[in-house]
């Protein structure tokens, strides 16, 4: 073996703890730095979470007056409770702001790195723990800088917490198999069930995983008594969710997003055949190269425009990882297969498809494959390896720096409207102006109503249509806020609120009437 | 004999998937790289990087970098699973990835396979960079037929020993391809501009 490579592998082995802490530090830093500024604003779901979290914290009720609800009524559907209660906790610590809403997600994203390391450590048998440690470190570092995982860890997305809990479920399931201790099984079941109370997709993924897990444990001749108790416990914990799922409210989300309601077919047989085909097509789309490496799901809120979900340098290592995986431990195969195979299942039932957010689990799956691929590459004997490693490091650095520049510097300008626009700035201005104006009128088309409930709940605002005008009888001064309709300097204009782009497009206009 | 009957069926589904594409006159923008496209992308990026000093912005956003990036991304689009599904059907796409897998795992050592890989890449490269003047239908047919042969190579090897599982998989893929052609006939428009 090449002496440089030997030194590198030795370093990886000897300084595992140091490297582990370093990767964790970098990963956490990337997830927390400028958390309130990038993403640039709170989008509509984050605002809804913020309002409910604050209300629950201070009154014990949600915004509709429901006492400590298990399912939160929201905009057109019902939200699952776990993230809202976590955000309540962070609001208690940090106050009512963007940081508090995003904190649970960023923290979950950082802890996921730790869990991925220990998960990979766990799947390898005692004799090959070193291999597990190295693959764990490489996968953890890939996930730490993964654009896909990083992006969602920095927004108030419930799915990040769900992914963490799902992986914790796996970790303790593997521990339960190895140590044959029922307490690990209980923790594992709790984690899997908790994912179902965190994000909608896991209402399908988690039960299927538990089913496959039970079959796997039965095959491993695991104590049947524990399995039976575990199944009963799962059923009991899921009961409220089951009842909710069969109610009209519980099905609202599925009805809204179902991929099969918009198929135009002449009879039910044709509809069924078309539905199956569409499902397969949707499912396959989650493995499309354009989705993974070029566009994502083309929703600017879910990734950076022009950037994929994975780095291009990962592609050869993912292929190498798949090749190597076929010869590795069964547990690892099952883990990767379940993560990448079950992950897109619920998302393929819905539109739009593919969907980056609903398949966040994929970021972990592909990071593990990349980790295995990198490990295989480091061990394989090839000519000019030293130079290849050097070239690889250059590629990784260039793509990563490029990504960081796009994310931390350009994204806040290019995606401001996808994140709800500069509603916070408008709210702050209204707060200042309201001392001079007893009445504030807002044009409905400004689309900041929820943000105003969050930022300035105590200021009375009156919402009007675009056709509104001040009546002759109205004597008191009015602050009128409306979106930009084309006139840059109309009469009575106080000032404009601009978007942060070079053209300085106008987002809102403040009038004194 | 069974193997060749199956391959014939697969090839028929591949041709049937390709037929609707005669209604197109060009691939979508994602499949092409041009200097004009690169230039407009650089201008857009420079206009967006408002917080950076201009010199640093130029270092990060220049034509060379964007050009290389664009070529890699466009090349990936030609091997995209969803695109291949629409162009040559699900069974064909499966065959393409099988052939690539045999190449990557070094199980396939015949020179003819590598030759076809080069031909496919050549056709795609010409389309991507040069957009030749002759009729689009010939160009798409050339890419399509090259991909047909490339996929049948992998499938042929895979079907050397036909087991019940393989038979089931192939039958399912053929059925799904046919259903896709007849029940969702407009999906290919995601990748081409219609006449």
Which structural traits does this protein have?
heterodimer; A: about 525 residues; alpha/beta; five-stranded mixed beta sheet; two-stranded antiparallel sheet; 21 helices; 7 strands; about 60% helix; globular; B: about 200 residues; mainly alpha; 8 helices; about 70% helix
Cα gyration radius of chain B (Å): 20 Å
Oligomer: heterodimer
Number of strands of chain A: 7
Largest sheet of chain A: 5 strands, mixed
Average pLDDT number of chain B: 90
User: Beta-sheet strand percentage of chain B?
Assistant: under 5%
Count of DSSP H/I helices of chain A: 21
Mean pLDDT of chain A: 90
Low-confidence stretches of chain A: none
Largest interface: A-B, 32 and 29 residues
Largest sheet of chain B: 2 strands, antiparallel
End-to-end distance of chain B: 42 Å
As a percent range, the share of helical residues of chain A equals 55-70%
Described by the principal axes of the CA atoms, the overall outline of chain B is elongated
How much of the sequence lies in strands of chain A comes to 5-15%
Label the structural class of chain A: alpha/beta
What is the straight-line distance between the termini of chain A? 80 Å
> Widest sheet of chain A: strand order?
4-3-5-7-6
Helix content of chain B: over 70%
From the alpha carbons, calculate the radius of gyration of chain A and give it in angstroms: 25 Å
């Amino acid at each position: 073996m090449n002496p440089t490579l030997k030194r590198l592998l030795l370093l990886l082995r000897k300084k595992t703890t140091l490297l582990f802490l370093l990767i964790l530090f970098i990963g956490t830093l990337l997830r927390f730095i400028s958390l309130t500024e990038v993403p640039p604003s709170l989008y509509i779901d984050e605002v809804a979470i913020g309002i409910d979290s604050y209300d629950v914290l201070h009154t014990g009720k949600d915004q509709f007056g429901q006492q400590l609800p298990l399912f939160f009524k929201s905009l057109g559907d019902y939200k699952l409770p776990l993230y809202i209660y976590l955000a309540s906790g962070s609001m208690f610590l940090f106050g009512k702001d963007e940081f508090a809403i995003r904190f649970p997600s960023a923290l979950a994203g950082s802890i996921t790195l730790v869990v991925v390391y220990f998960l990979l450590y766990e799947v390898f048998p005692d004799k090959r723990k070193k291999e597990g440690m190295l693959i764990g470190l490489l996968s953890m570092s890939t996930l730490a800088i993964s654009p896909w995982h990083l992006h969602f860890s920095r927004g108030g997305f419930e799915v990040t917490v769900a992914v963490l809990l799902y992986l914790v479920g796996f970790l303790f399931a593997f521990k339960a198999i190895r140590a044959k201790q029922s307490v690990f099984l209980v923790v594992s079941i709790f984690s899997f069930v908790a994912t179902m109370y965190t994000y909608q997709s896991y209402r399908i993924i988690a039960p299927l995983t538990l089913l496959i897990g039970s079959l796997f444990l039965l095959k491993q001749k695991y104590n049947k008594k524990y399995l039976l108790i575990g199944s009963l416990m799962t059923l009991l914990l899921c009961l409220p969710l089951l009842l909710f799922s069969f109610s009209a409210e519980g099905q609202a989300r599925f009805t809204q997003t179902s991929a099969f309601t918009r198929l135009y077919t002449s009879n039910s047989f044709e509809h069924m055949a078309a539905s199956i085909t569409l499902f397969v097509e949707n499912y396959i789309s989650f493995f499309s190269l354009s989705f993974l490496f070029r566009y994502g799901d083309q929703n600017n809120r879910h990734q950076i425009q022009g950037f994929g979900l994975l780095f291009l340098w990962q592609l050869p290592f993912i292929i190498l990882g798949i090749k190597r995986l076929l010869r590795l431990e069964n547990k690892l195969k099952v883990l990767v297969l379940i993560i990448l195979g079950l992950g897109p299942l619920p998302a393929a039932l819905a539109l739009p498809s593919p969907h980056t957010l609903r398949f966040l689990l994929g970021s972990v799956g592909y990071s593990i494959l990349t980790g295995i691929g990198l490990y295989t590459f480091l061990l394989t004997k090839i000519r000019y390896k030293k130079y290849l490693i050097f070239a690889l490091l250059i590629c990784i650095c260039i793509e990563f720096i490029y990504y960081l520049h796009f994310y931390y510097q350009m994204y806040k300008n290019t995606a401001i409207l996808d994140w709800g626009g500069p509603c916070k700035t408008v709210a702050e201005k209204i707060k200042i102006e309201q001392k001079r104006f007893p009445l504030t009128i807002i044009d409905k088309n400004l689309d900041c109503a929820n943000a105003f409930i969050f930022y300035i709940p105590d200021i009375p605002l009156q919402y009007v249509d675009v056709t509104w005008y001040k009546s002759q009888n109205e004597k008191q001064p009015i602050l009128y806020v409306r979106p930009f309709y084309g006139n840059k300097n109309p009469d009575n204009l106080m000032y404009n609120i601009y978007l942060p782009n070079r053209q300085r497009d106008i987002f809102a206009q403040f009038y004194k009437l | 004999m069974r193997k060749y009957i199956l391959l014939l069926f697969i090839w028929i589904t591949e041709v049937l998937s390709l037929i609707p594409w005669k209604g197109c006159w060009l691939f979508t923008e994602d499949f092409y790289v041009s200097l004009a496209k690169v230039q407009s992308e650089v201008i857009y990026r420079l206009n967006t990087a408002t917080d950076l000093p201009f010199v640093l912005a130029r270092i990060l956003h220049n034509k060379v970098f964007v050009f290389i990036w664009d070529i890699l991304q466009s090349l990936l689009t030609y091997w995209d699973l969803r695109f291949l599904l629409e162009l040559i059907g699900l069974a064909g796409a499966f065959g393409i990835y099988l052939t690539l897998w045999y190449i990557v795992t070094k199980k396939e050592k015949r020179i003819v396979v590598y030759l076809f890989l080069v031909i496919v890449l050549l056709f795609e490269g010409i389309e991507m960079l040069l957009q030749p003047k002759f009729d689009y239908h010939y160009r798409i047919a050339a890419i399509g037929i090259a991909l047909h042969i490339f996929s049948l190579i992998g499938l042929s090897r895979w079907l050397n020993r036909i087991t019940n599982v393989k038979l089931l998989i192939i039958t399912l893929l053929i059925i799904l391809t046919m259903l896709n052609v007849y029940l969702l006939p407009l999906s290919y428009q995601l990748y081409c501009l219609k006449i």
